Amino acid sequence: MNDCLPEVSGTWQRVESTLRQVVANYGYQEIRTPIVESTDLFKRSIGEVTDIVEKEMYTFEDRNGDSLTLRPEGTASTVRAGNEHGLLYNQQQRLWYMGPMFRHERPQKGRYRQFHQFGVETYGIDGPDIDVEVILLSARIWKAFGISDQVTLQINSLGSNEARQNYRDALVEYLKARAEKLDEDSLRRMETNPLRVLDSKNPDVQAAIADAPSLLDYLDEESKTHFSNLCERLTQAGIQYQVNSRLVRGLDYYNRTVFEWVTESLGAQGTVCAGGRYDGLVEQLGGKATPAVGFAMGMERLVLLLTTLQATDEDNRAADVYVTSMGVETYALTVAEQLRDSCPELRIMMHCGGGNFKKQLKRADKTGATVAVLLGSDEAEKQLATVKPLRGDGEQETVALSALAEKLAGLVN
Ligand code: ATP
Ligand code: MG
């Protein structure tokens, strides 16, 4: 579980505000749910035989003896809330959320015990049109951050329950023939939840099942049409994708469309965004049958991508303008406050703690400010301000106080 320090919190803020902008751009509305839920909710939705429920949940008894769990993901809570407040039945919803999730995993680069997900969930629309919208929305996020060339889209269809059942039988037969090459987890899952074996992170297991039967050969007619329709629309929209017939996702509630955005720039934890359709979950959690599709994005992985690929100093500087003064502190205070009135978009930091100009300018430099304002008795007397660019090769200049805001705006942007 990480502290988010000032050296990177500005990048987080940029990420959060850009994400908010993109979802607003598509007419999605925010939903906020509690960080703890009843343990049963996650067991019933994510599935008993999954990594999350088997070994990753932070579960505890509260004072009443009720079993509670820190949420490991956002979809189950969203459906729970939607059912509880009557948001889902017979209507369409386009929702998003952002916040901390908790999984007791082995911490490593891109994998933490408290991490943050940004996600969207849509309800009440069963056609591939909404699958495409959700994927386009995620693609627009990469575009907004300038990292479209760093991520690739993989898609697959899990089909209907019956199609998966038929596939399951074929897969189990295939796995049984290779049992000696599977690890303990996979052998257990072969019995309890064989599709999960395809999702194994063990490279030896992956190699052993390289030519496993393909789910796509077992799809029911409707899922087949849905999938080919989706592929067609993605192509029309100019979105490149790879069909990966091994993509099954680590949670039980998915059907039909599943997708992941993966990157090669982060090493082993390459999935930055993952989602799909989950038409059965609303009913399974006590609501009326409602089609649904969504995704969740790992925000740490997104921030890691940005800090790996781009200069992020700009995000994380404390100030644009640093106001220094000698002997005229009251004048300086007035000037700084006036600037905050007239330039609310600028970050204006006023030097505190005294010292000569040299010392104050050193401090100014440390804040990352682009301009310093110098105020001495001469400036105070004549209502002037001296402006000193701190980056680049601009000249120091003294201007009338009334012209200061405009001068700074020109220098900062
Ligand atoms: P993985 O295969 O990496 O374990 P998952 O299938 O468990 O992922 P999801 O439950 O689909 O992941 O979560 C969606 C996204 O959230 C992931 O693609 C990833 O970007 C991010 N994520 C999941 N677990 C973690 C974690 N422990 N730390 C940081 N990010 C995570
Ligand atoms: Mg996982």
Main sheet specs? 8 strands, mixed
Spatial arrangement of strands, main beta sheet: 1-5-6-11-10-9-7-8
**CATH-defined architecture of the largest domain:** 2-Layer Sandwich
The set of bound ligands, ions and cofactors reads: adenosine-5'-triphosphate, magnesium ion
| CATH class value of the largest domain | Alpha Beta
Distance between the termini: 37 Å
CATH topology category name of the largest domain: BirA Bifunctional Protein, domain 2
Question: How would you characterize the overall build of this protein?
Answer:
There is one protein chain. This protein is of the alpha+beta class. The protein folds into two domains: 6-159 and 219-308, Bira Bifunctional Protein, Domain 2 (BirA Bifunctional Protein, domain 2), CATH 3.30.930.10; 321-411, Anticodon-binding domain (Rossmann fold), CATH 3.40.50.800. The protein contains 16 helices and 16 strands. The chain has helices at residues 6-25, 39-46, 51-56, 75-84, 128-145, 161-176, 184-192, 195-198, 203-208, 221-236, 281-284, 299-309, 329-342, 357-366, 377-382, 404-412, and strands at 29-30, 36-38, 59-61, 67-70, 93-102, 114-123, 151-157, 242-243, 255-263, 271-277, 292-298, 321-325, 348-350, 371-375, 384-389, 397-400. Strands 1-5-6-11-10-9-7-8 form an eight-stranded mixed β-sheet. A five-stranded mixed β-sheet has the order 13-12-14-15-16, sandwiched between helices. A hairpin with a 7-residue loop joins strand 15 (384-389) and strand 16 (397-400). Helix 1 packs antiparallel against helix 5 and helix 5 (128-145) runs parallel beside helix 10 (221-236). Bound molecules: adenosine-5'-triphosphate and magnesium ion. The site of adenosine-5'-triphosphate has 17 residues, from strand 6, strand 10, strand 11 and helix 12. InterPro entries: aa-tRNA-synth_II (IPR006195), aa-tRNA-synth_II/BPL/LPL (IPR045864), Anticodon-bd (IPR004154), Anticodon-bd_dom_sf (IPR036621), His-tRNA-ligase (IPR015807), HisRS-like_core (IPR041715), HisRS/HisZ (IPR004516), HisRS_anticodon (IPR033656). Its main location: cytoplasm. Residues 12-344 form the Aminoacyl-transfer RNA synthetases class-II family profile domain. It is found in: Cytoplasm. Keywords: Aminoacyl-tRNA synthetase, ATP-binding, Cytoplasm, Ligase, Nucleotide-binding, Protein biosynthesis.
